[in-house]
Amino acid sequence: MNAIPQADALMRDDATPVRSARWTVAEVEALYQLPLMDLIYRAQQVHRENFDANEIQRSTLLSVKTGGCSEDCGYCSQAARYNTETEREALLPLDEVIAAAQVAKDKGASRFCMGAAWRGPKDKDLAQVGAMIRAVKGLGLQTCVTLGMLKDGQANELKEAGLDYYNHNLDTDASFYGQVITTHKHADRIDTLGQVRAAGIKVCSGGIIGMGESRRNRAALIVQLANLDPPPESVPINNLVPIPGTPLANVAPIDNFEFVRTIAAARITMPTSFVRLSAGRQAMAEELQALCFLAGANSIFYGDKLLTTGNPEADRDEALFEKLGLRPI
Ligand code: SAM
Ligand code: DTB
Ligand code: SF4
Questions:
Q1: Domain boundaries, the chain
Q2: Which of 1, 16, 113, 136 could form a disulfide with 101 if both were Cys (CB 3.0 to 4.6 A apart)?
Q3: The CATH fold of domain 9-328
Q4: What is the block-wise mean pLDDT of the chain (329 residues), using blocks of 10 residues?
């Protein structure tokens, strides 16, 4: 088998590791270049050293505020400036959020993630989202929100409401970011992640694959995520869902094996993180999803809708888990 790139562990004087790894783009590109069987084997080894390889975590999404967003993210159905089929909706009332969270819990989700199409929340929005977090947590679910960029003090307010995770994706390599989004910067995303960490909230951050980026861009995204200190606890890897009316509507889909390689690279570089096989599952054959689990994905979005687009029905996922002998956690 080929030599496997391995970032060096940094050691303190007393020989305890400071952190497990600092990856370079060249090292992650070298992972991508391994024969697929070797790459998957390595990813499985890392996976099994850190997790039960037959267990999968499930998060359910709800869009609590849909459409009309000021930003120009080239993939997004919710950007006001693109002519998409997504209809604007105001912030959902609390009782509708609680009802959806209860359904998610009854179907077996362990985490409920509420998304809002904002550049960032206004202080009055945050008070209402805080009430949603308190109520969902009260049902016994882990809570996650994705609200865009945070200003000083907002992460602390979310923490006080009992928030477990904040989702904020780096989305793509810093050097490719400006080709997809111009209304905010990659550095702004890093800044928000810092505020989330400083408030003691767990980080969920990943990206989108298949936006016309190069393999080097994909490797660089993985490096930017893996070298966060500490790396995100949850790493959603989304396959672009092409949205008619957006600038990325007609990008050529990524090769399936390249997507699997990206999952494996995430697993190897972020050994203790949950790697989530995220958007794009509806268009994936069961065999491709199984290959993603073999490459180290151990989490999915669960429920028939993501934010504005479809996701496999919960019953279909249950049947797939049954066939693969996967146990939900
Ligand atoms: N407005 C907030 C933000 O941008 O962080 C939260 C909502 S935004 C829709 C959350 C994430 O959904 C994005 O960062 C992106 O990774 C993902 N996403 C949005 N549209 C997508 C698409 N068409 N295909 C795949 N992932 C998508
Ligand atoms: C993430 O990484 N993917 C989710 C969640 N975090 C917020 C969103 C996927 C959105 C897919 C397109 C849509 O449904 O609008
Ligand atoms: Fe707005 Fe988020 Fe969509 Fe960008 S990804 S347009 S910030 S909702």
A1: 9-328
A2: 136
A3: TIM Barrel (3.20.20)
A4: 44 45 93 98 98 97 98 98 97 98 96 98 96 98 98 97 98 98 98 98 98 98 97 98 98 98 98 98 98 98 97 96 96
